[in-house]
Amino acid sequence: MFGGHGIYLDGVMIGLIAYERLYLKTDEQSLPRWREAGCEPFVYDGKGKPVTMSYWTPPQEAMESPALMQPWARLALEAAVRARSAKAARKPPARRPAARKAK
Questions:
Q1: In which domain, by residue range, is 56 found?
Q2: Cα separation, 80 vs 69, whole angstroms
Q3: Of 9, 1, 5, 15, which Cα lies nearest the Cα of 63?
Q4: For the segment 4-39, what is each residue's pLDDT rounded down to a tens digit?
């Protein structure tokens, strides 16, 4: 899909590795924290136009420290769970086949 590897936890994609960089899931709620930390978005070329995805690099200092990475990984999981919940809420209910009348 994006030439990289997806990172999943509990059935949701929380991150990806592309172009030898780690990116973690963000959303509108968590994005200000990523921006404040100086993180960068995952951007790819979509038919000649840059496309920004909802995955951002964690802060550089977190890359070598499990303790510093943990809060960023938690933010990514929370964003991924919110995205899954929002997607499920938009999905129309499954249609049941109409009952057949007895002859």
A1: 5-85
A2: 17
A3: 15
A4: 899 999 999 999 999 999 999 999 999 999 999 999
